[in-house]
From TrEMBL, chain A:
Gene3D superfamilies: 3.30.465.10, CO dehydrogenase flavoprotein, C-terminal domain (3.30.390.50), Uridine Diphospho-n-acetylenolpyruvylglucosamine Reductase, domain 2 (3.30.43.10). It comes from the Bacteria. InterPro entries: CO_DH_flav_C (IPR005107), CO_DH_flav_C_dom_sf (IPR036683), Diverse_Substr_Oxidored (IPR051312), FAD-bd_PCMH (IPR016166), FAD-bd_PCMH-like_sf (IPR036318), FAD-bd_PCMH_sub1 (IPR016167), FAD-bd_PCMH_sub2 (IPR016169), Mopterin_DH_FAD-bd (IPR002346). Coiled coil: none annotated. SMART domains: CO_deh_flav_C. This is Xanthine dehydrogenase family protein subunit M. The lineage of its organism: Bacteria, Pseudomonadati, Pseudomonadota, Alphaproteobacteria, Sphingomonadales. It holds the Pfam family FAD_binding_5. Residues 1-221 form the FAD-binding PCMH-type domain. Keywords: FAD, Flavoprotein. GO terms for molecular function: FAD binding; oxidoreductase activity.
UniProtKB/TrEMBL annotation, chain B:
GO terms for molecular function: iron ion binding; oxidoreductase activity. It comes from Stakelama marina. InterPro entries: Ald_Oxase/Xan_DH_a/b, Ald_Oxase/Xan_DH_a/b_sf, Ald_Oxase/xanthine_DH-like, AldOxase/xan_DH_MoCoBD1, AldOxase/xan_DH_MoCoBD2, AldOxase/xan_DH_Mopterin-bd_sf. This is Xanthine dehydrogenase family protein molybdopterin-binding subunit. Keywords: Molybdenum, Oxidoreductase. Residues 38-144 form the Aldehyde oxidase/xanthine dehydrogenase a/b hammerhead domain.
Length: 327, 738
């Protein structure tokens, strides 16, 4: 483990002022510490933000929720309003990691969880995300857990999270503080970046910028669920996951918000797939059209080819479950 | 069914036959439990040592070639680094063992496999050592590696002198070609990691020329021998200590290379040194269960009686290592059929060393054989149990010797009845509950039983308590508890009056834990010691041995009941028991048996498999402790679930590196994958197996358990997968459309 400096921040402003390219904020540390032990992450300084006053979950004036960046996954999953109004989020949180990890992992940190790509974790080999320009062994290697959407020649890694997938389906807004004191409100749809030629840059966060809150809009219309498909019953990353919110009124789908995990380099959302549903009668034709739209550009790399039919089947099953229409 | 009348029997009574304390066999709580849950039990890396240094291994980052140069300057410059050791000719590439000469692991600058150990960085803290190790700059000449061996065209036949030799009986080809029914399929099994929770770790301390090694080991004397051989020193100078071991699963039958690095570094620095292997290093530095390719041929007559049985396999080992996964081991005595061809060949590859991992042979062998039996039964139109029943041999079908206790048919019957086997629909893919397809499967379990040489000293103290000492280990299995029970039973003492001292190579030598022989062998040695003590007590009472009963701390004979303290009269009695290898095993075939039953639900949309319940019924001879025996069998069944559904250590075919060398991506069964599991015993003391009448338990549970799950998946879905593990991607194409 590379030696590093450690400082505890006593205000968000102070934390951002200490931030920088070689600085990491640490909250739960459930991902960062593992990566530091392996020297995948080698920060020169850690700013401990765990004492900051960012632990509250509050109602917003618009009827939504404002979640402090330090709210642990376990607490957020059990929060009465999350359970009542944002079931998809509660379910996604509980589908992630283990009880111990959910007690430690924070809301802000979980948004920034890094990929589980095997080659990213192994400093003995090349990885464009870890060492830009060094190459991507995953593309032609073993890539069972890798992405089928949004990949680039440089990187086919997936975002591993569950919570962010639900937040993407919920149109969350990420609130940040910059070193110059500016606050930003970033739609989760604009928060993550596709790998392109710079897979090492995963979000639009700037140097020293700190996530302080996540805001959820007022509860969406419709039924919600989170379906996670994985290799074992617990404590495994998603092969495919679907965060779904679907409303049916008068025989027509009136709202469809779909997030996907395990498929892309970021929590995935596809407006075209949702358009195939809204205004349509729930049923096989609409469900298949949505799946076709989602996966139109999907590309497998060998060992992950199965994710394409798996995603299709899982999405259709979730839509049937939420609409109650099986035909 | 085996004719019990033909079974040879013993002509004398053992100390246990005469015992009446009734503590043996009871589900006594493990005596080391409180120490373990309170943290009082210290594992190797936790043993305190004043002024200790910490070492981190430097490992190879190519899979084949040579080290041209190692630049250690940057490592030496890390604050806290005390020494960087890369040039001692004794440095091992991986595990050391007393079963091979040092050239098996002394590879010098030749790289045989990715992750091979090359040196050690020693520092004042573990963090500094780790940072130093990362800064050692190795210049390589990269060689041509063989990372993807073709198991369909293996390199070497295994010689007839092998531990499990090839078996050819009658004319297999002739019987095969002329049979009424032929089944012929090929299976593959992946690499499995032993994956013990406690990593391989060592504290080495020199006192003059004497070396003490606190390490995580399955055997004490054998390990001391291996360490002495690796260090080129006399074995008398080496003491190994492993009072607590956090799981072994075969991976600690050899000595982790870190022990040798720690010893060399401690010598060089003049301070105690602790070296621990990280989880990722363990994947390479510790031997694994190798991948196999298995062709199973079953030929029968029109009544489903096997006339020819072929189990022809290939597996992998690196150059220089002599262990060969004995894939056909479990097949040798399991089913009838006169003509047989049972072979395992070898391919060489630039892979880390393969070795004996829990249930070597049977674990991977039954994954294929027991699925093949299920498939063959279906093609014959027979119930899988009925097919097995028709092929239950009277004597060993391979060597004609009689069996010891063999309650396999009773295991099937009791299991079928208790599990509700009659509710299984023989037509697959027919039972559905919502999105879930439901199925049942079963498989046989078999594990060869060995008694090996073991010694134990028992001392009946003047206060009437007893102490038993042997260099056995308790790797989470319950050794402390069963040794306590056997001595309490044999000497007629309350269990809490018996003290057990193990895990120290200075104690009388046993073979340690491995091959399921630990319990039977060490308790036999203890029982033999107790018999000598009983004879001494009888003599002191002036009674004939056969008239002596020991109970509740008293000796009862000749109408007298005398406290042991009184008989001893201030003089302790000590005896050493010596259980000899092969005492009883040459004249008959000794094995443990069982039957596994599994019910699974397979998601019709995604192919996710959830085991709903399992039952195992086992014949293990005398049950020494119902609780610890159950725990071992249950744990083995959980491994069966994991090995059939998840476990798959993948080697990158381009580099020889493991793709998933951590618990994040090498999936063992999680709690949520383990359903309610029931364990039952068909108990019959096997008086020929050994003095204790106990057969091996530790490896039986995962023999056949995975196959039962695979057969249940087929029954649920109608999809037969032969390339294990059965992950959901392999089922998808055969599932109903959504």
């Amino acid at each position: 483990m590379k030696t590093f400096d450690y400082a505890r921040a006593d205000s968000p402003e102070a934390a951002t002022r200490e931030g920088g390219e070689k600085v990491r904020f640490i909250a739960g540390g459930t991902n960062l510490l593992d990566l530091m032990k392996l020297q995948v992450e080698t920060p020169e300084k850690l700013i401990d933000i765990t004492r900051l006053d960012l632990n509250e979950v509050e109602d917003t004036d618009e009827g939504g929720l404002r979640i402090g960046a330090l709210v642990p996954n376990a607490d957020l999953a059990a929060h009465p309003r999350v359970v009542k109004d944002y079931e998809v989020l509660s379910r996604a949180l509980l589908a992630g990691a283990s009880g111990q990890l959910r007690n430690k992992a924070s809301t802000g940190g979980n948004l920034l969880q890094r990929t589980r790509c095997y080659y990213f974790y192994d400093t003995a080999v090349a990885c464009n995300k870890r060492e830009p320009g060094s190459g991507c062994p995953a593309r032609d290697g073993f890539n069972r857990i890798h992405a089928v959407l949004g990949t680039s020649d440089k990187c086919i890694a997936t975002h591993p999270g569950d919570m962010p997938v639900a937040m993407r389906a919920l149109d969350a807004v990420i609130v940040t503080l910059k070193p110059d004191g500016d606050k930003r409100r970033i739609s989760i749809h604009d928060f993550y970046r596709l790998p392109g030629d710079t897979p090492e840059i995963e979000t639009v966060l700037e140097s020293g910028e700190l996530i302080t809150h996540v805001e959820l809009p007022a509860p969406p219309k419709g039924k919600q669920t989170y379906r996670k498909v994985r290799d074992r019953a617990s404590y495994a990353f998603a092969l495919v996951s679907v965060a779904a919110i679907v409303a049916v009124e008068d025989g027509k789908i009136t709202n469809a918000q779909l997030g996907f995990g395990g498929l892309g380099p970021m929590p995935w959302r596809d407006a075209t797939a949702e358009e195939m549903l809204v205004g349509k009668a729930p049923g096989k034709a609409a469900f298949e059209a949505a799946a076709d739209a989602l996966l139109a550009d999907a590309q497998g790399f060998g060992s992950n080819d199965f994710k394409i039919p798996l995603a299709r089947r899982t999405l259709i099953a979730v839509l049937r479950e939420l609409t109650g229409v099986t035909a | 069914m085996a004719d019990q009348e033909q079974r040879p029997t013993r002509d004398r009574l053992t100390v246990l036959d005469r015992a009446v304390q009734h503590v043996l066999g009871k589900g006594v709580d493990r005596t080391d439990g409180p120490a373990k849950v309170t943290g009082e039990a210290r594992y190797a890396f936790e043993v305190p040592a004043d002024d200790a240094l910490y070492g981190c291994l430097v490992t190879a980052t190519i899979g084949a070639g040579r080290v041209e140069a190692m630049d250690c300057k940057a490592a030496e410059a890390v604050p806290g680094v005390v020494a960087v050791i890369t040039d001692d000719p004794r440095l091992p590439a991986d595990m050391v063992t007393s079963m091979q000469a040092p050239d098996a692991w002394r590879l010098g600058h030749d790289i045989h496999f990715f992750g091979q150990a090359l040196g050690v960085v020693v520092a004042e803290s573990w963090e500094a050592a780790r940072e130093g190790a990362a800064r050692v700059a190795v210049r390589y000449a990269v060689g041509e590696g063989r990372f993807d061996p073709d198991l369909a065209a293996p390199d070497e036949e295994v010689p007839a002198t092998a531990f499990v030799p090839p078996i050819h009986k009658d004319d297999f080809d002739d019987a095969w070609l002329n049979a009424e029914f032929q089944y012929d399929e090929t299976f593959s099994t992946p690499i499995h990691f032993p994956a013990a929770m406690e990593p391989h770790a060592t504290l080495a301390v020199w006192d003059g020329d004497a070396l003490t090694v606190h390490s995580s080991l399955q055997s004490m004397a054998g390990s001391a021998k291996a360490i002495a051989s690796a260090l080129d020193i006399d074995v008398e100078r080496v003491r190994t200590l492993s009072p607590f071991v956090g799981g072994g699963f075969g991976g600690k039958t050899s000595v982790g290379s870190e022990a040798i690095y720690a010893a060399i570094a401690a010598r060089e620095t003049g301070r105690p040194v602790k070296v621990i292997q990280s989880r990722r290093q363990i994947a390479y530095g510790v031997h694994h269960r190798p991948a196999t390719r298995q062709r199973v041929r079953i030929a029968t007559d029109r009544n489903g009686r096997i006339v020819a049985l072929g189990h022809n396999n290939a597996t992998v080992q690196r150059d220089g290592r002599n262990f060969v996964e004995p894939v056909h081991f479990g097949t040798i005595h399991l089913y009838g059929g006169a003509a047989r061809s049972l072979t395992t060949s070898l391919s060489r590859a630039n892979h880390p060393t393969s070795g004996a991992v829990r249930s070597p042979g049977e674990a991977s062998g039954t994954m294929a054989l027991e699925v093949a039996m299920d498939e063959a039964a279906e093609r014959l139109g027979l119930d899988p149990i009925e097919f097995r029943r028709r092929n239950e041999p009277q004597v060993s079908p391979t060597n004609g010797k009689p069996f010891g206790t063999r309650k396999l048919l009773q295991c099937y019957d009791e299991g079928a009845s208790a599990f509700g086997w009659n509710r299984r629909n023989p037509n697959p893919g027919q039972q559905r509950e919502g999105d879930w397809l439901i199925g049942m499967g079963m498989a046989a379990a078999v594990r060869g039983n060995f008694t090996v040489e073991a010694r134990a000293t028992v001392r009946l103290e003047t206060d009437g308590s007893a102490t038993v000492e042997t260099d056995m280990t308790d790797i989470g299995t319950g050794t402390y508890t069963i040794l306590m029970q056997i001595v309490a039973e044999a000497l007629g003492l309350p269990a809490e009056q018996v003290k057990v001292v193990i895990g120290d190579s200075d104690l009388p030598a046993s073979a340690g834990s491995g091959g399921s022989f630990g319990a039977g062998s060490s308790t036999s040695a203890a029982a033999l010691a107790c018999e000598q003590i009983a004879q001494t007590i009888a003599a002191k009472m002036g009674a004939a041995r056969e008239n002596l009963t020991l109970q509740d701390g008293h000796a009862i004979a000749e109408n007298r009941r005398v406290p042991l303290t009184e008989i001893l009269g201030g003089e302790a009695v000590e005896a050493e028991g010596h259980a000899k290898a092969g005492d009883h095993t040459s004249a008959h075939v000794s094995s443990s048996y069982g039957a596994h039953f599994a019910e699974v639900a397979v998601n019709a949309v995604t192919g996710e498999v959830r085991v709903r319940r399992m039952l195992g019924v086992f014949d293990v001879g005398r049950v020494l402790n119902r609780k610890t025996a159950r725990s071992q069998l249950l744990g083995g069944m959980v491994w069966g679930i994991g090995s059939m559904l998840h476990e798959d250590a993948i080697i990158d075919k381009r580099t020889g590196q493991f793709v998933n060398p951590d618990f994040g991506e090498y999936h063992v069964a999680a709690h949520a994958d383990a359903p309610p599991i029931e364990v039952r015993f068909i108990e019959e003391i096997d008086d020929l197996a050994n003095e204790a009448g106990a057969k091996g338990v530790g490896e039986l549970g995962n023999s056949g358990a995975g196959a039962a799950v695979a057969n249940a998946i087929y029954n649920a879905t109608g999809v037969r997968v032969r390339d294990f593990p059965v992950t959901l991607d392999k089922l998808l194409a055969g599932l109903p459309p959504v």
